[in-house]
## 1
Amino acid sequence: MTFTPPKIQKRTLKGHLQPVLCLAHSSERLAYYHSKKRTAIQRSDGDSDGVKSAADSDGCTHRHHPSLLLSGSEDGTARLWDLRQRKTAYCMIPPKKGGDVVEVTSVAFHPSLVEEIETKTKDVDRKGGSLLGEGDCTVYVGAAMNIYGYDLRYHATESTTAPASPILKEPHFNLTSFFRSKDEINQLSFSYPKHNDGRGRYSMSAVDDSGEVRVCEDVPFRYTQQSLDGNATKQPKVFYHADPETQALASCAVFKPRVNDLYLASGGTDCMIKLWDVSKPRRPTYSTHIKPQSDNETTTQLCNPPFVHSLAWSPSGRLLASAIGDGSCIIFRGEGRRLVEVGRLGWKEGGHGSAVASVCFPGFGLCEAKGSSLQVTSKSLLNGTVDDRLMITAGNDCNVLVWDLGANMVGNDAVDPALYLSRGGAIERGVDDSLTDIATDLDDMIIDNSSVKKKGKGGKPNDEAENSSDDDLIPSPPKVLFQIPHRHKPNWITCSRASDTLLPCSLFVADTTNDISIYTLQI
């Protein structure tokens, strides 16, 4: 089957005054799996036999789930964007340090809770049109060594006489005393509740430049739970990712989904990836040292050490992808308390020519919004119930690559991305004060990797690789489906998990400019 890249259109969110450093989307935790313990969602053809689905953090279908984007910038602000209304809903300004602007280096949504989603639909739009959905009412901002929380639902209903101000200058609670980070925070991350825990309890991690990862349980997410200057009642668990004498930074840490035990993967500038059992923080259950590629093809890769810039778990929790500074992306399979390397995607595989800045599993294949609920489409179920094959990477070579990891690496029960990444029609465009359509159709710019001859040393086509019979022996190896020229070095990427008629499945890219790029795919 010949793969045809989908039609993609680029839009731009404008509002920040300096480069955007971090992003989070309200649906990024939505992942679907096959389980008899969850509620079936009707397929688009009306047949629900064997199709079980649930939001991976909540165990529910996220009805009335809004499309919200959270961003943090060097300008010292965090913005909540309502993508359906195409405007900024709130602008949060963390407290300044000595009058100086403090960069916002990490942002996160508090995970939705089952009871909130089931009981709070009646509260939506009560105050003349709330932009917030059930559960997505508390956001967290990391600025320098501080972590602040904003209960946006409380802010929206605080005043009964006037509309809530879109600018929040004071946080609703300060979590700095909870985590006690020693240096600038690089990433905030939330855990996934245990399958057998119906209380929806979450742990939150903060990774910083001191080389430490700090984890706190049951952080406050409502204004009434914690006063602004309250002190933590529990000591944080500290995971020493980097040895102090190395002076290495811990750059990223993400919780593993789909497990009853709480596991956390961390990476940093010590070129190490470690897996931790959160209940036993003394030492990692597994660690591996990333070595430079032995067959580097470019001078850029030879000069860049294999720092770990970004980590991402696949929706099922079976795979861990790591963005490496030498331009490669290493894929691990999680096997209990250890990680097993199953592939390294570099220049020879059509990968990046410079450091990989960010990686994510978009999970486009299984979920689609129909009206006020999410549905599993029959198209996505033609070849499995796990959407672990599609991966997106962004590199300092200013390219965004869309990968198919293949059945050999992921397994035969995974959805083939080619089944739903088909070329669609034109995307309806709109312009307002906050979202500017740059009138750029990327259809002619997208590079289909399957039609480009692989180049060997010297830039000449590698005819030997083209005539090789390896593909006959390996029916489904990893490959780049297509690439998107982005023109600027990326800082962060994230995706919207659910598609609807107002906002198709989208990729969000923060880069060295002041704007956020939105690539919409008609799937």
Note: The helical segments are 114-119, 152-157, 176-179, 299-303, 406-410, 463-466, 470-473.
## 2
Amino acid sequence: MSVAIRVLLVDDEELARLRLRGLVHDCLEPAASVVGEAANAAQALAWLASNACDVLLLDVQMPGRDGTQLAAELRQRADAPAVVFVTAHAEHALRAFDLDAVDYLTKPVRRERLQAALQRVAQRLAQRAAAASRVQGAPASGPAEAPVIVVADRGRVIRVPLSEVLYLKAELKYVTMRTAAHTHILDEALSDLELRLGDSFLRVHRNALVARAAVRALERRAMAGDADGEGDEKGGEKGGEKGGEKGGEASEGWAVCIAPVDEWLAVSRRQVTAVREALTAVGR
């Protein structure tokens, strides 16, 4: 029989904790057990100083430090428990996933949603155990969990592995993020994304970042609109105005081919050398 997931309830409302305790008890797969309760962040930290748990079911808005502040503090610990936010306030979801939360449940919580969240916790615990086994038997090869980009999509919050992202492009008032299977919308400036993504992505144009591994070719070709120009970074308003003035006419400029979707993105003149060097560096 598998060991039950150890749950710490952190909520300033006693009735909310009572309801969660009952829901946890009713979850059978995976099995879970409430091992402690706290009414605020200070009590939770005091409990954790002498006890251990696998996951916090954590409210966001509480007296003193709120749930996101507590999660941020716990995240600095090597043995940090997983966090599932349980709150009546859906607007904190993106911040929660930035803190590597396993899930984000809105009140009133349904047993099926809690059980799904606990299944994710069980998966994360299994990943940690596997990573620990690898470390004991071989040199460390990197973090146990791959980096992700969190996307809000029609009421859902999705974690997209960074390894699946092909490119990001600023258009109008948002940024589109392309994977092989989907296109997602991000409400974040391209410059902020560039800082977060690091060297695995290459700036090819003022309005586009591409995954180095996805670049297959660099050549001159006819591109619609602002082929060699430098459109606006987040809004694309400047580029849109240019495109309108040109009436959508194609002009020749440098472009990169993105695999496996076989799409072409414009490369600004000032970035051609960097793109060529990137292609050469990986032997393409």
Note: The two ends are 52 Å apart (CA to CA).
